[in-house]
Amino acid sequence: MESGTLCSIGELARRTGLTVKTIRFYSDRGIVVPAHRTPAGYRRYGPDAVARLALVRTLRELGLGLDEIRQVVDRELTLGEVAAQHAAALEVQIGILRLRRAVLTTAAGRDPMTPEEMERMHRLARLTGDERRRLTDEFLDAVFAGLDEDAGWAGVRRSMTPELPDDPTEEQLGAWVELAELSLDPDFRARVRSGAEGHAAGLPDGGSGQPRPDVVVIARDHAAAALAAGITPRSPRADRVAAAITADCSRALGRPDDGELCRWVLQRLTAVNDPRRDRYFRLLALINGWPAPERLAPALDWSVAALRLRAAR
Predict the structure, then answer these.
(1) Do 296 and 238 fall into the same domain?
(2) Nearest 10 degrees: CA dihedral of 156, 140, 222, 237?
(3) Per-residue pLDDT tens for 240-262?
């Protein structure tokens, strides 16, 4: 279109790729105003109409409303001001969409799932930062309440505290939902509490002096070495490893290395050996951006199987 030349709405539609109906709608809204009308009332548009409509189309594709577009093309608002407003609004929408996707992705991996479980997952995902902290504190209070604070439990508690970032990934959101569900599970709480109490039993009175090695750590270290060496619990070589576990536990606890001790250690390891514990710490690492921890369950599975065979003899 040459400078100073007016064109009809049909020609403008051909040049812009928009429909006549759309251009007429924009004209009625005052966004692209005709430069002239013929005596018969037909609209005629000036040379700037193509550029204005190209801008309108771009802004519409970016999600701007018609009132804002009119303000931009009339220079009542700058593009930068409008862009900043919409970028902030989109950030909120993106956060909501990521949250929904995290819930749906987690739900998709749990087939079958009840409507009640889905509602709970959605509620947990929408918790505020303060609400998440209260849920976490309630769980950790149930685990550590009454244990000697001077014995290092504050540090252990911190190491089990999830801190979801302000701008979490979908994976972190999904991990938070699953971890929160674990935290609310009464049986899981009781198992973690039992593990804490068992560990506390190995600490000196009053939390002073050197702590005795925990039987779980003793068993884990021996079993990990056996697993690395390819020794199965039923292997003849496993008997020496099982004997080393009970011998070290005997020295740590000051008890005779006999059948009663073997059964006690076996009971302790069985009580602690919960795959949900490994899952909790892997989810925690994902939420907090920590390296993934080693799984405890394989070593405890090995120890329990080997000691069971030894106790049965």
Answers:
(1) yes
(2) 180
(3) 999 999 999 999 888 999 999 99
